[in-house]
Design goal:
By secondary structure, the chain is mainly beta. The chain has helices at 17-21, 370-376, 432-438, and strands at residues 11-13, 37-48, 64-72, 77-87, 93-100, 111-117, 120-121, 131-133, 136-144, 154-161, 165-167, 171-172, 183-195, 210-233, 239-245, 253-259, 262-263, 277-290, 300-307, 310-313, 317-318, 326-327, 336-340, 345-348, 351-354, 360-362, 365-369, 380-384, 389-394, 397-402, 407-410, 413-416, 422-424, 427-431, 442-446, 449-453. It has 3 helices and 36 strands. Mean pLDDT is 85; it is low at 1-32.
Length: 458
């Protein structure tokens, strides 16, 4: 997928399954005199490096906290600002960090809280208003980590509207069980300390030996690599001195990469967000790290591969120890479906398909073909023409919805869709957000391209 030279890149979209099947309401789920009802707030992961402490124009070399808030703005409400604060398990402020969309006076503390809707950045910098929202909207939040985002921390939001303020419940720091990225590191191994292929900023011999590694990757579908990072660690993976990377985000020397005789990284990218390249299938890279003496036998290193969907990492490899090389033959563990707005081209994992009807926008909602997605993910689909009813069954979940009606049923419990299912050329389509809600999917958007995956979440 194409990685935009803006922060309006493909970003994850997720909603708690419990909201659909029915969980007990919490304090943040009540109507408040602020024009906005908060439906859910959740810490998703810390897989991306998208923003800096004060701008969403470029990354800064550290992974960002990635969160999601689902709101209902009813007939319309202006959101002036959102502030995220830290708390303990009881909800008491801990003052370990603060992130804001707006600073209304000089000297006010807080780092940028970037807000994204449908893959598009709303605030590249601090700004006085996020705009007016109507109906149900899901906002993704990115907070550049100041080394305070870790296990045991909790977070909450204060959402200021034009008529009042609403506060969410707390959400704990969390990491998903597996990366959503449709790529696996199949092998990461040390090779030698005798090569001279790269310098500290440009690929090419510089008279100083490099550390040479081998990296084997498997891409389920065509995927942008945004960055590859080599880090020094201890045997348990804790950070140690030494970092080599493909972009200039943060500190570090160039990680030189070649694919056979082809040089992948002739130098640092001028734009930190420009991808290394797009790849599919089985790929083998040679990695070269200019050695200032810190890379030697007995030291440990990991490799991280950041993609548009998330980041995958190896376990530590002990240089010079043949028994320490990282090998991973396990299956990816989830399926991925690729779609394009207004295009009949589609993929399921590595296979290409042609749709009968292309995904399209309807009143601001992204409509996708129901049967194609459901059957790709192992759900059984039944169509009752007389009642205009579609029934989906997957494992212990039964979903019933009706053409042209906003009311649907999940395991017998009524829910309301923000847009009903429709039929085009005898194909049923429904809002992609409903797929993420009811079937526990992750949905990614990128400039008209969509990926849906059933990667497990905590």
């Amino acid at each position: 997928m194409v990685y935009k030279k803006k922060l309006s890149v493909l970003l994850a979209s997720t909603i708690l399954f419990s909201l659909v099947v029915g969980s007990s309401a919490n304090a943040a789920d009540q109507i408040v005199p602020a024009g906005v009802q908060v439906k859910s707030f959740r810490f998703l992961d810390k897989e991306y490096d998208r923003i800096s402490l004060d701008t969403a124009e470029k990354p800064d070399g550290t992974r960002d906290g990635h969160l999601s808030v689902l709101i209902d703005a009813g007939e319309g409400a202006e959101i002036k600002s959102i502030t995220m604060k830290t708390a303990d398990a009881e909800g008491k402020d801990t003052s370990h960090g603060m992130w804001k969309t707006w600073k209304d006076q000089a000297g006010e503390i807080g780092n940028l809280l970037a807000v994204v809707q449908d893959g598009k950045i709303i605030n590249k910098k601090f700004q006085a208003s996020l705009g007016t929202f109507k109906g149900v909207a899901e906002l993704e939040l990115y907070a550049s980590d100041n080394n305070g985002m870790k296990e045991g921390e909790y977070y909450y939001l204060e959402i200021v509207t034009s008529i009042g303020t609403v506060k969410t419940d707390i959400t704990p720091f969390a990491q998903n069980e597996v990366s959503y990225a449709p790529v696996s590191i199949r092998e990461f191994s040390w090779q030698d300390l005798d090569s001279d292929q790269t310098g500290v900023a440009e690929f090419g011999a510089d008279g100083q030996s490099d550390a040479h590694f081998k990296l084997k990757l498997n891409f389920v579908q065509k995927t942008d690599i945004l960055a590859v990072i080599l880090r020094g660690t201890d045997k348990d993976g804790h950070t140690a001195p030494g970092i080599w990377r493909t972009n200039r985000a943060g500190t570090g020397w160039l990680l030189g990469i070649s694919q056979g005789k082809k040089v992948i990284t002739p130098g640092f990218k001028k734009d930190e967000k420009e991808p290394v390249g797009a790849f599919r299938g089985n790929i083998v890279f040679d990695l070269y790290a200019s050695n200032n003496g810190s890379i030697k036998n007995g030291e440990y290193y990991v490799v991280e591969v950041e993609t548009s969907y998330g980041t995958v990492s190896s376990k530590p490899v002990k240089f010079g120890d043949p028994a320490s090389n990282y090998v991973n033959d396990a299956p990816l563990g989830f399926r991925s479906i690729g779609l394009k707005l207004n295009s009949k081209e589609a993929t399921i994992d590595e296979k290409d398909y042609k749709l009968e009807v292309a995904p399209f926008k309807l009143e601001g909602r992204t409509m996708v073909p129901l049967r194609f997605i459901a059957e790709a993910l192992g759900a059984k689909v039944d169509w009752n023409k007389q009642k205009q009813r579609i029934t989906l069954v997957k494992e212990n979940t039964k979903i019933e919805l009706f053409i042209g009606k906003k009311e649907a049923y999940v395991n017998g419990k009524a829910i309301t869709l923000d847009s009903p299912a429709v039929i085009r050329n005898n194909v049923t389509l429904l809002p992609v957000r409903f797929v993420s809600e009811t079937m526990k999917m992750m949905v990614f958007f990128d400039d008209g391209e969509i990926m849906i995956t059933d990667a497990k979440q905590k």
